[in-house]
Amino acid sequence: MSTLTFQGAVGEVTGSRYLIAVDGDKGPHRLLLECGLHQGGPDADRLNARPFGALATQLEAVVLSHAHLDHSGLLPKLVREGYRGPIHCTRGTRDLLEILLQDAAFVMAKDLEWENKWRHKAGKPTVEPLYEPGDVEQTLALCESHSYGRPSELPGGATLVFREAGHILGSAIVELTIPSGGQQKRLVFSGDLGNPGSVLMKDPEKLFDADLVLMESTYGDRDHRPLEETIEEFARVLEAAHADGGNVLIPAFAVGRSQEILYHLGVLYHEGRLRQQMVFLDSPMAIRVTELYRRARKSLNPEDLKVLNVAASGDPDRYLPVLRLTRTVEESMAINRIHGGAIIIAGAGMCDGGRIVHHFRYNLERPSTRLVIVGFQAAGTLGRQIVDGAERIRVFGQELAVKARVHTLGGFSAHAGQAQLIGWAGAFRHRPRFYLVHGEPGAQQALQRALAESDIQAEIPAYGESIEL
To answer: Are 48 and 21 in contact (CB under 8 A)?
Structure first.
């Protein structure tokens, strides 16, 4: 029998990894579904540093749902340790991987440079990076991109088909047909399912046949506010900040969320409702991703693109004329001389690093500042501390009082909410076996109960658990 082993994103949102052993005459064919980085929490560094061991050379293929680092961020480490097989993904994912993995290697090198200086002075052994830029280049060379809906053959007689997930550019639902015990079993992995209310992305595709479904549960305990209400609240926050003369800080993921926020700011601008005359996209990675989205616009939602074109009279450069792209450190530092009237979109999305943390030093202790949280904040991150009501936080060894007004706008989420997850699961005929992954325990348990009310039984797997297909 073919088996699946849960090696990550179990009882947590990040660290996605599932090992599939395909039943074969001469032994199993090992496939890896996802190879994600653990993010947030006290054990993340230890889990990321753990060697792959013999698995790196035993694997015959890797399948990737999308480019976010919690799904892809350990691929270069796998390659560094000896993996040389194909990495199957969509074209959009391949293009985003080039941006995200290069940035991850750069940030890692900078962080280790400072840490190893401290270790050297303290007489402690230095630390090796998880991977370096050369490992990223080798990883990208192994990528094989596929179109949605087109079957591809995998080792052991398995078949792969990518379906539209509607989460970010290139994101996919993974459909695998796997030989097991003389039968063909269909495994569906939801990846990260998109929020149908989000702009720019197409709606997630519904599938109808499966024997086993791995389904994300990030927002399994709640539904998002309607997007219209969220945009209205966003507009009110911006108006209040303008009236108080304060800056607006928006920690945003470079992929997806930054582009969505820019879209809504552009709509408000052309409606005459954006009073701020300075909008900074202060993230070199988000700038590169925004440029990629523009080149790949044929993959985006045509109705949303029509809004862009009408608002800007067909000229993309006129869509948000007050937008300023700050690529260099010097340009980013200059923003902090502005004491009011600016909107600053910067990474990291969970406030656990990046340029947004520098802006905290200059803005967070001002009551006129608005901090707008527009994305999921994982347990253990600085962003989660703030959302949970921390009155003081520590940034670069300095303690800051959180005097800014904090607004959490969940309606911008790029993930499906509880009702949407149940709707997607309910489309399957003959009730496959469901396993809930990519969720914190409370969210998973809430979704499990809600699914049961719709006569859908779902299990919550344990780390290291193996199941037969």
So the answer is: no
